[in-house]
Write a structure and sequence with these properties.
Blueprint (H helix, E strand, L loop, with lengths): L22 H7 L9 H7 L6 H6 L8 H20 L3 H19 L7 H17 L1 H20 L9 H22 L5 H26 L5 E4 L2 E5 L9 H7 L3 H7 L6 H27 L23 H15 L2 H13 L13 H11 L3
Antiparallel strand pairs: 1-2
Length: about 375
């Protein structure tokens, strides 16, 4: 669904069909391959078609983590596309089960002959050699959480509240960032805390970006015997509490699009929450660089995979420097929110961005998000 995409170019979502093989197709295509297939070949076949921002961001991830980043983001894109590319929810669930089983096989050291699996297997072997098995088990925990969350949100039901949208973003976009940190490996309460705020912003932004795509009727899936029907009905994933507060009706959005009464007000309220998370992350980063406290507790500290050993100011500074490329996920989210504001919070009129590569370079150079 729309909240499942991104941060990707939503405008290119329709063109994603066929850019990556389905799990079944990939398995068939790979029958003659061996587990010793050159990883360089696999890197090419697992390229990030359709996720322009991940394609840009991967160059800022440490080289040792790049295979993991490529594999995980490509898998995320595959999972995000499922509701759009299969003809019914039962098939989508079967695909989700396929990927869950595949992940378990990969972490058990027995990857299927499928590009994402081979690349992820290589990354896990490298990670175990560098850092031991505990980092790999962290990666598995986060990846299964991502798959489970994607599965729960396959049917494009609206979020009950803005808080439930945040929970979704934590379990998808923030979790993708936790995986990148685990692949380095970098375990730090402050880096995870920053990733949580940035990931929440990214997930909220992805929902807003998806509005024009999901509110339009889907195109019929073409099968061997012709059209097999639409994959989904139009959907609007804005939180119900926000919609009720401003009086926007989903039927009006489906019928009138950007002219629906209350749409821009509701988008403004949701966008403000995303912007608040980015502001919080920037303030935290500023305080941590100055050797000060961040000013508020990390809500997930103490949960599974969020247990930390204490480190001093010097350790925190080193962690920020080493993991800064992960924090650059904030830049595309901020870039979209700025363009949304210029469009008066009408998601149908947001213009494409051409400044993003420059903004990423500037953020890295100045060490500011």
């Amino acid at each position: 669904g729309g909240h499942l995409y991104g941060p990707v170019y939503v405008s290119s979502l329709r063109g994603l069909r066929g850019s990556l093989p389905s799990p079944d197709e990939a398995s068939r295509q790979s029958q003659t391959a061996t587990s010793k297939r050159p990883v360089s070949t696999v890197r090419t076949s697992s390229s990030l078609h359709g996720d322009y921002e991940a394609f840009l961001l991967r160059q800022f991830v440490p080289l040792s983590s790049r295979d993991a980043y490529n594999a995980l983001r490509t898998l995320n894109l595959e999972l995000a596309r499922l509701p759009e590319t299969v003809s019914n929810p039962t098939i989508a669930r079967m695909r989700m089960s396929f990927w869950r089983e595949t992940v378990n096989s990969v972490f058990a050291g027995n990857p299927p002959r499928e590009p994402i699996s081979i690349l992820l297997h290589q990354a896990i072997q490298d990670l175990k050699a560098r850092a031991g098995p505990s980092s790999a088990s962290s990666l598995k925990f986060w990846l299964l959480r991502l798959i489970n969350t994607r599965e729960q949100h396959m049917e494009n039901r609206p979020f009950v509240s803005l808080n439930s949208l945040e929970d979704y973003a934590e379990n998808t976009y923030a979790t993708l960032m936790y995986m990148t940190l685990a692949s380095m490996p970098l375990r730090s309460v402050h880096m995870d805390h920053l990733a949580s705020h940035i990931g929440k912003a990214c997930g909220i932004v992805a929902t807003l970006r998806g509005i024009p795509v999901l509110a339009a009727p889907s195109q019929p899936i073409q099968g061997p015997a012709g059209s097999v029907g639409n994959t989904r009905h139009p959907a609007l994933l804005l939180p119900l509490d926000v919609m009720a507060e401003v009086g926007v009706r989903e039927e009006d959005v489906f019928r009138h699009g950007p002219n629906a009464e209350g749409l821009q007000d509701s988008v403004f309220k949701v966008a403000t929450r995303a912007n608040d998370h980015l502001i919080t992350a920037r303030e935290m980063l500023k305080n941590l660089k100055a050797g000060e406290e961040v000013g508020h507790e990390y809500e997930h500290e103490g949960e599974q995979e969020h247990v930390y050993s204490s480190g001093g100011v010097d350790a925190t500074q080193a962690d920020i420097k080493r993991g800064f490329g992960v924090l650059l996920e904030a830049v595309p989210a901020a870039d979209y929110l700025e363009r949304l504001e210029k469009a008066d919070f009408d998601p149908f009129k947001v213009k494409a961005s051409w400044k993003l590569p420059w903004r990423l370079w500037r953020a890295l150079k100045t060490q500011h998000i």
